[in-house]
User: What shape does this take?
Amino acid sequence: MTVSAAPAEAILDSSRSPRRRALRGTPGAKAYGLATITAVYLLWSLLPVAITVLFSFNEGRSRSTWQGFSLRWYTWDPTGSIINDESLRVALLHTFVLAVLATLITVPLGVLFALALDRWRGRIPAGANFLALITFVIPEIALAIGLLFMVTYLATPFGLGTWAQVIGLVTYQLAYPIVICRARLLTIGAHYEEAARDLGASALGAVRRVILPMLFPAILVSAILVFADVLDDFVLVRYLSSDASTETTSMRIYATARAAPSPALNAMATVILAVSILTIVVGWLLFRRWARRQGEKADMGSLASTL
Assistant: This one.
């Protein structure tokens, strides 16, 4: 008695199809799908950055054809390099000045604001908390236009320029340390401060010697976020700029890219990227040192878990 091939293939297909359907719903299949989506997203996000960094080391002026490795656009080109082009140097220096000033002002203010909101109850602090968080909702361009009108038409002690840009950036960035430090304060609780007060510490001493050291991870993350965000800010600094001396790298790249682009723009963007990465690395090293003193595991996951 012979068995035809068609029924045998039908039996084989029927035995395979349920297994395939089962595999599609397994956690492993879902993990592969998520990994694929993540890889596509990373390629889509990082590939343009990699191309920008690569062509900042291009020997020629082309921004699409590779002509050999060189540091021309960083150092030795007589007119187009970052070192020899005064406008590029001024833009880079002004960008770093704004980032440092905004960070030094924003983070202490945000920490004090968070401590006050953590202790103050009532309608007034609720309103202050709402005003502090409103920058997450208001578009940056609306805030920039409002500050521009205020500086231009009201009797302010400063005009358009560096200090107007600093005040605008502080206003826009203040919500970050407030939210991050308040989240950290909620995890700390009030018992550490109460224990310090029971042992004889003053209110200010308990905050300075107990709360602020425990807030260090949140303060560190706030400083990193503010510094990195100010480095590539465009809208606020452009509206509050006065002349060429207050141009930042983002403004310079925008203006030059639309007129006469050169690989020097790639070099400027690469410098900003390198400084941002260096800031994150230094922050992680500082957190690692703090965690060792506290006896905690020092990794990026624990840094995120502190928030």
Observations:
- Residues 1-5 have pLDDT under 50 and may be disordered.
